[in-house]
Amino acid sequence: MSLPDPATCHAALQARDHRLDGVFFTCVKTTGIYCRPVCPARPPLLKNCRFATSAAEAASWGFRACKRCRPDAAPGSPAWQGSAASVRRALGLIDQGALDSLDAPAPVAALGDRLGVGERQVRRLFARHLGVPPVAVAQAKRLAIAVRLVDEGSLPMARIAAEAGFGSVRRFNEVFQSAHGESPAARRRTKGAAIMEFALSRFAAPAFDLLIVSDGDGVLRALDFSDFEERMHRLLARHYGQYRLVEAPLPAAIAGALTAYFGGDVAALDALPVATGGSDFQRRVWTALRRIPAGETSGYGALAAQLGQPGAARAVGLANGANPIAIVVPCHRVIGASGALTGYAGGVERKRWLLRHEGVGTG
């Protein structure tokens, strides 16, 4: 069955129509997650949806599998299997491990030999019927097995990696992290945890627009520039696993503090309450950042020394780059030892603008 038009897919999603389960997968642009049509989560707006013909295609676009409807754990749908006999045979061979040795020379060519067609034809068939290359299907199959083993059992991760067909635990962790936005161990820890719902608000600053994420208590959870929305979602997923954003007015306390800050009271953000995930070390770094007064700067080495770990300047830099709450947790106040602005997730020009706004000369 071919992919229905977007309006039909969205109607089926709203109705949780079992008849189209497996025919398409919904990729939600605002969360980076893909779901089955029968997912119990609240349906997203049509403008935020992209529809895929298979779980493998959704994963190839960079979307992560929903933890509630588990689309990655049920790849044997009609859309997945395709309509051509050669593709069905190829999928059967992949299920039997035909592409498990992906490090071997020309594994797709070897698959084509078993089908009686050339490597180029194999790739064309998969592109036509599944929208993804054979290796992506094999990887999705491995991940489906791994997800089931992580969710349903207590096997060591090394055993799961081997059972799912990964050549090493390191490769297993890399692929799993890329697909799901968290490590296998983190998924196991959060299995069964409630989906966190946050409010998404917007604020027009003088030189740029901001996205603000807060919780039910009005506590700031994330703040990023509007053109870095993908990064914001990536950090939210890393900190909270599966989450949901609901458009809502900006809480008055946050709106007032931001208005005062951009109006010239550069200390107005100091008292805003914030909350993040992250490791203990990262949170210590972010707390130290908030101690840098507006109008002053610090360096990675100085922050590491303040934390009692003078050799951890590089780790401080990495934590600085993973900060989910820009401006309020002022990572823009950290500069290089030479006085250079160095990198900034929102761009060096924005860093320069913020520092000048706070009274720091940047040359």
- Residue-averaged pLDDT, rounded? 84
CATH architecture of the domain at 196-357: Orthogonal Bundle
**What profile does the largest beta sheet have?**
4 strands, mixed
Question: What gross morphology would you assign?
Answer: globular
Give the N-to-C terminal Cα separation.
Answer: 62 Å
Report strand order across the widest sheet. Answer: 3-1-2-4
Number of strands: 8
* β-strand amount: 5-15%
Counting DSSP H or I runs of 4 or more residues, the number of helices is 16
CATH superfamily assignment of the domain at 196-357? Answer: Winged helix-like DNA-binding domain superfamily/Winged helix DNA-binding domain
Order of helices and strands: HEEEHEHHHHHHHHEEEHEHHHHH
- The radius of gyration computed from the alpha-carbon positions, rounded to a whole number of angstroms, is 24 Å
Oligomerization state: single chain
Stated plainly, the CATH topology of the domain at 196-357 is called Arc Repressor Mutant, subunit A
Structural class: alpha/beta
- Specify the helix fraction band: 40-55%
| Unreliable runs | 75-83
CATH class of the domain at 196-357: Mainly Alpha
